[in-house]
Design brief:
about 1100 residues; alpha+beta; nine-stranded mixed beta sheet; 40 helices; about 50% helix; elongated; disordered N terminus
């Protein structure tokens, strides 16, 4: 065998393509074939100046007659001071950072590499290690990384500064523990949580990296760890073992010279892919022998084995080409980002507003003091005195609330198996506007079932399949009785019919022809699993008797194909064996029919059809069978009046249709075709076009046999769930790697696109001009769903990103088909940037991971396609229908509860700051604390914590109501539960109550001025407990317990706090009635206002509950 095979990397193609593209766009000049306007060098310049929305004529003659879209480019021209102040500085900073990062992480150019088989040490360049790393931090970056994530929030940074200021004696107010204890608690909880998550990731990576593989060396087989594999190693991969890196497939134990791999972790498809060993190495008697002369053989994608796929049949030997970061699976996934909820960002903004209020209040105090003495020190002391305006307990309460929501979600019996993996963003589930979903395995079960066979005059459904079975049995029994009658089976009776087309065929023979065509025209391979107890490798069964049905499974690149072959088996014609050159069918009578495969024309997304030419071994008849989409086949088959109508009918039922046709060829016709075909395949220029032209010469006047309908079963309750989400105001986009027809079909059958809506299919575009015209055409459509393919999307995003996003966002539904994983993630990011709305991505395969990680909220489904998506997601569910309850009930209540909790905690800080301000102003603006030491810590913890935190149990409507009226969810997306308006209301309440409590205490207690602290503090605690009761919408028994527990704690602690309270005075009646009077004045007006508001303008949920 050749010591050295120069292997040109598969990835080199991308680089070549981009170079060609660049050349295409730069190539121009007088020789260009297009007339003036379309000369390519001007094209981009012209299009830059041209408004996008023009009529086609305007495109030709520059007369704009169509309203233009706001252009992204125009806004960028506003440079100068105004631009710099309005955010230009931020843009410059990020640009500089990106530039530095790019320099540090400069991507290596991918160029052709020479690989020495079995001699990795001979490689000149260095290649990355073959280890998988999903961790966010390492030992050194963990603590700095976690602290940075915490202190980048204004709230936490503020507390750090305030706490540090207490080490300065002149600024010290109260005790150190009042500041450091809450901050330390928050940080400890965060660090422990991150450490646990990080350790789990580390364990998962270690498990994968330490898997053992056999490596072929000069000394024989050696065991090697996955992470120690290098470029050039010859690795043996057993059946059901994961392929550790991208390899070229050299040899297999299978006799056919091919093997199957499962790619579900790479592209999310559960069907197996056929891979072919390099023929020169497969033919060698043993690896390691030199071949003379050197062999030159071109490699194709079929000769590659990719990392993270699994060998499904036989044992394979491959040479490692790409490792670690350079493997296809790693390059297709993006780094996970730390997700921060919108609610947290909004609260962060509110804390900034509170900080400004704090500074203003302190300045006012110092001004009223008259700037006497060291006023700046007084200013800082006032800042510290009023620092409770921004409560540290806000983060603690919210984090504990998030943990509680996660626990509730996982405990919900209506959505069993749901796992919360990211506990920081449960409120995001209540703010979603865009839901981006995968199709296969998410909306559908990825299980195909044969539903309909239509022959033009007669149609068979699931209930009449037994008729087909009897027709097939009759045909074969007649054929064999006649064959045995003629004792030489030269010409079966159907030969006579085909020579006289005028005679109408009987239904029986037409059914038989159709079934035989479906059984032969496909790329399915039957695989025989070794029976339990039989040792040795799984081989295809060699002898006919071994074709036992219970061991057979079918494998193909598409589940549709498998469904068709399984159906032919159910009606009596069974595919029992298949290799690269022949197929064997078993008839209902048990005879084996052998067909020689002369040519295969695989399915491509351009041709939308596949064909096969077979020779029947018994009769030597050559037949060309073909099947494909109706759009492709309608022009190929003979004229008929039923095909188009029936295809429409089946598509409306949600079936995937295929048209099957055949053409009998004579030996001369075939020989002529074969010579032309071989010649076309050897041509250097325009090979694909020439090959297609030769094949098309056969595709004329084919005899239409039948139309088949296969159903991809939807997941349980997909239609009502999508309906519910649409009513909740969520726009649903379907991003799939599947074909355009299939995607459109599922969009209709799942009611993603409603029956009455038009569908605009975006034509394939390859250049800027085409994209321009196609966007114009789409602009004129109103209220129609958009279906666009990945390639067209790529072109539009390159030139007209802003325009495409604006148009697509107006659509009720969007379907993107033939999307790569990175494209899916790009669409998510585009929506986030262009709309600023919250996005959610849901998928179930390895190909959805990038999209799930890019979205604000990622949901993974544990499906047939493995657990990769569910492990990468923030939330993991077991069925698509659970998303309805997850959003409508848990998302909605999490958001409303957190909004109430956040504002209440702020109110708690504001009210005590107001009292401090009143106290200071009465006492000649002295910067002296009103409440010291334990009173302050107790106020934020044991006295009010339980009732305030019990707000996480509050609900405005019952879960059943929230599911029944998804429109309630729509209100949340506007963010009205937590806005500057609601926040202002709480600020006014706090100022009113703080003022009443302090002035009331000062008015009623002129004689016992020393008791002001006791009176005001008791009234404050009572007010807080009553305010919780006012905020609650639905009582829970734990809330009542929390209220009384807190009150009990306070009364019990009065006995111990002798330094603040005079016990003899507290027990008097005058103390009790005066405290009660102050509390009533501070709370009663609010109860009255709340009652009037409920009566005069009730919220939407209260209309449902009444």
């Amino acid at each position: 065998m050749a010591d050295q095979i120069p292997l040109y990397p598969v990835r080199g193609a991308a680089a070549v393509a981009s170079r060609k593209r660049a050349a295409y766009y730069s190539a121009a000049g007088p020789g260009a074939e297009r007339p003036g306007r379309f000369q390519l060098e001007d094209e981009s310049a012209h299009l830059d100046e041209m408004p996008l929305m023009m009529s086609e004529e305007g495109f030709e003659n520059d007369e704009s007659d169509y309203h233009t879209l706001p252009r992204a480019r125009i806004s960028q021209r506003k440079r100068g001071l105004e631009w710099f102040v309005c955010g230009g500085w931020k843009f410059l900073c990020t640009s500089c950072c990106d530039w530095l990062i790019n320099i540090c992480q400069r991507k290596r150019e991918l160029k052709a590499r020479t690989v020495w088989l079995g001699y990795p040490e001979k490689c000149e360049e260095k290649h990355p290690r073959n280890s998988i790393k999903n961790q966010k931090y390492n030992v050194f970056t963990f603590i700095p990384g976690v602290l940075y994530e915490q202190f980048k929030f204004f709230l936490n940074l503020y507390f750090l500064i305030v706490s540090c200021s207490q080490f300065v004696p002149a600024l010290k107010i109260g005790y150190l523990y009042t500041y450091w204890a809450p901050l330390g608690f928050v940080l400890a909880v965060t660090i422990v949580r991150e450490a646990v998550d990080e350790f789990r990731r580390f364990q998962r990576d270690k498990e994968v990296n330490s898997q053992l593989y056999s490596k072929l060396t000069v000394r024989g087989k050696v065991q090697v760890k996955s992470s120690d594999i290098q470029v050039g190693d010859l690795i043996i991969v057993e059946k059901n073992q994961r392929i550790p890196s991208d390899m070229v497939f050299l040899r297999t134990s299978e006799k056919a010279g091919s093997c199957f791999i499962r790619t579900d972790q790479l592209d999310g498809e559960t069907d197996w892919k056929l891979k072919v060993a390099v023929s020169c190495t497969q033919r060698l008697p043993a690896l390691g022998e030199d071949s003379d002369p050197p062999v030159h053989e071109s490699l194709s994608i079929e000769n590659t084995l990719w990392a993270s796929t699994i060998v499904a049949s036989g044992t394979v030997i491959g040479v490692v080409i790409y490792t670690g970061k350079e493997t296809r699976s790693v390059m297709n996934t993006s780094n996970p980002k730390n997700k921060v909820g919108l609610l947290d960002l909004e609260l962060n903004q509110l804390t900034k507003a509170l900080f400004l209020a704090l500074v203003a209040l302190s300045l006012v105090m110092v001004t009223l003091q008259g700037f006497v003495g060291p006023w700046y020190r007084n200013l800082f002391r006032f800042l510290l005195l009023f620092s409770y305006i921004i409560p540290i307990s806000l983060r603690v309460n919210l984090d504990m609330g998030k943990a509680a929501y996660g626990w509730m979600i996982m405990r919900d019996e209506n959505i069993p198996g749901t796992v919360v993996r990211t506990s920081t963003i449960p409120e995001e589930l209540g703010r979603l506007v865009y839901l981006l979903t995968d199709k296969t395995g998410t909306l559908t079960q990825n299980e195909m079932i044969f539903k309909r066979l239509h022959l033009g005059t007669v149609s068979y459904g699931t209930d009449t399949m037994d008729e087909i079975q009897s027709h097939v049995m009759n045909s074969y029994s007649q054929m064999y009785s006649q064959a045995s009658g003629n004792n030489a089976s030269s010409t079966p009776p159907r030969k006579a019919q085909s020579s006289a087309p005028k005679v109408r065929k009987s239904v029986s023979s037409r059914v038989h022809e159709a079934v035989k065509a479906i059984a032969l025209c496909h790329n399915v391979t039957p695989v025989y699993e070794a029976r339990a107890g039989v040792t040795g490798e799984t081989e295809y069964a060699e002898v006919d008797q071994d074709f036992s049905d219970e061991n057979r499974t079918y494998q193909a690149s598409s589940p549709d194909e498998v469904a068709l072959v399984q159906w032919t088996e159910s009606v009596g014609l069974t595919l029992v064996n298949r290799d690269l050159t022949s197929m064997q069918l078993r008839t209902p009578g048990g005879q084996i029919l052998t067909y020689c495969v002369l040519q295969m024309f695989p399915f491509t997304s351009e041709s939308k059809r596949m064909g096969v030419i077979v020779r029947d071994e018994s009769t030597a008849e050559i037949t060309f069978y073909m099947k494909g989409a109706d759009v492709a086949m309608s022009t190929i088959v003979q004229y008929n009046d039923w095909l188009e109508e029936e295809c429409g009918n089946m598509a409306r039922e949600g079936l995937r249709t295929l048209v099957v046709a055949k053409r009998a060829l004579t030996e001369e016709q075939y020989q002529d075709f074969e010579s032309r075909y071989s010649q076309a395949k050897l041509s250097v220029h325009d090979r694909t076009l020439k090959v297609a032209a030769v094949v098309e010469s056969l595709e004329r006047e084919m005899e239409l046999l039948c139309l088949t309908g296969v159903e991809d079963q939807l997941q349980a309750d997909v239609r009502p769930t999508l309906e519910m989400l649409r009513n909740a105001g969520i726009k649903i986009w379907m991003l799939t790697g599947d074909k355009l027809e299939t995607a459109t079909c599922i969009a209709k059958s799942s009611h993603l696109v409603s029956r009455t809506q038009d569908i605009h299919t975006f034509r394939p575009v390859t250049s800027r001009g085409e994209a321009h015209l196609e966007l114009n055409a789409f602009r004129r459509k109103h209220d129609c769903a958009l279906v666009i393919s990945g390639d067209s999307l790529e072109v539009c995003l390159r030139y007209y990103e802003h325009e495409l996003a604006e148009l697509a966002c107006q659509c009720p539904a969007v379907v993107c088909c033939r999307c790569s994983p990175t494209q899916k993630a790009r669409i998510v990011k585009l929506l986030q940037q262009r709309t600023g709305k919250r996005t959610c991505a849901i998928g179930d395969g390895g190909n959805d991971v990038s999209m799930i990680q890019a979205a604000d909220c990622g949901i993974g489904i544990e499906g047939k396609e493995g657990k990769q998506a569910s492990l990468a997601a923030d939330f993991s569910i077991t069925q698509f229908k659970h998303i309805g309850r997850l959003l409508m009930v848990h998302g909605r209540s999490s958001y409303k509860r957190s909004a109430a909790l956040g504002q209440f905690v702020m109110h708690r800080g504001l009210i005590i700051s107001t009292m401090q301000a009143v106290f200071s102003s009465v006492f000649y603006f002295a910067s002296v604390p009103l409440y010291q030491g334990f009173l302050m810590v107790g106020y934020a913890t044991i006295y009010t914590m339980f009732p305030v935190f019990s707000l996480v149990l509050d609900q405005d409507v019952k879960p059943e109501m929230a599911m029944l009226y998804p429109e309630l969810y729509k209100d949340l997306t506007k963010g009205r539960s937590l806005s500057f308006k609601t926040f202002l209301v709480w600020v006014l309440i706090s100022i009113y109550q703080g003022g009443i409590l302090m002035y009331g205490a000062l008015l009623l207690f002129e004689s016992e001025f020393v008791h002001v602290v006791a009176i005001s503090f008791t009234a404050l605690i009572l007010t807080e407990l009553l305010m919780v009761a006012l905020t609650v919408r639905t009582w829970h028994w734990l809330m009542v317990v929390a209220e009384f527990l807190s009150l009990g704690c306070y009364i019990a602690s009065l006995a111990f706090l002798n330094e603040y309270f005079d016990v003899a005075f507290i027990t008097t009646v005058t103390f009790l009635w005066k405290v009660s009077a102050i509390t009533v004045v501070s709370c009663l007006p609010l109860y009255v206002l709340k009652y009037l508001k409920r009566k005069l303008s009730p919220p939407s949920y209260s209309k449902l509950t009444s």
